[in-house]
Amino acid sequence: MAEFRYGPVELYLVGFEGDRPSPDTIDALAELLEGGLVRLLDFVIVSKSESGDVEVIEIEDQTGEYGFGSIELAEIGITGEEDIAELVELVEPGSSAAIVALELVYARRLADRLASSGGVVLSAERIPAPIVNAIMDMAEEA
């Protein structure tokens, strides 16, 4: 069986103040990428004016005017126009967000191992961190 070239990809829509993410946000992403558990496959900035006009900036040159010198894109363009159109609906007028496509490298490795042993992932579900933390807080209080 051939190895998978890519693992599952998650799209994140991260809101921020102003027209670009803060240096702290970029540093946090760079730290995550350095760990090798994920790869950055796309980074798109979307802004919505007060009147609802949308501007889309696809970051291809991470050392350009947006100051992304500390992150490296493994690929470019996996986020499609339909993805962007759907996610930009969640951006409030007068604000901006980043669409970040992360390949889950650890999940690709797991999928390779499972496939080579005859296993098949039948379902995978992510429970958002705020929900997990709320449930654990309630369990500790009980």
The major sheet is characterized as: 4 strands, antiparallel
Helical content (DSSP H or I, runs of 4+): 25-40%
Number of helices: 4
Shape: globular
Alpha-beta classification: alpha+beta
**Percent in strands:** 15-25%
Strand arrangement across the biggest beta sheet: 1-4-2-3
| Strand runs, count | 4
Mean pLDDT figure: 85
Low-confidence region ranges: none
Word description of this protein:
This protein is α+β, with helices and mostly antiparallel strands and 142 residues long. Helix content is 32%, strand content 24%. The protein has four helices and four strands, in the order βαββαβαα. It has helices at residues 23-34, 81-88, 105-116, 129-141; strands spanning 9-16, 38-48, 54-58, 95-104. The protein has a four-stranded antiparallel sheet with strand order 1-4-2-3. Strand 2 (38-48) and strand 3 form a beta hairpin. The longest helix is centred in the C-terminal third of the chain and has 13 residues, at 129-141. It starts with 8 loop residues before the first strand and ends with a helix. The relative contact order is 0.24.
Q: What key phrases describe this protein's structure?
A:
142 residues, alpha+beta, 4-stranded antiparallel sheet, 4 helices, 4 strands, globular
What is shown here, in short?
The chain is α+β, with helices and mostly antiparallel strands and 142 residues long. It is built from 4 helices and 4 strands; from the N terminus they run βαββαβαα. 15% of the residues are buried.
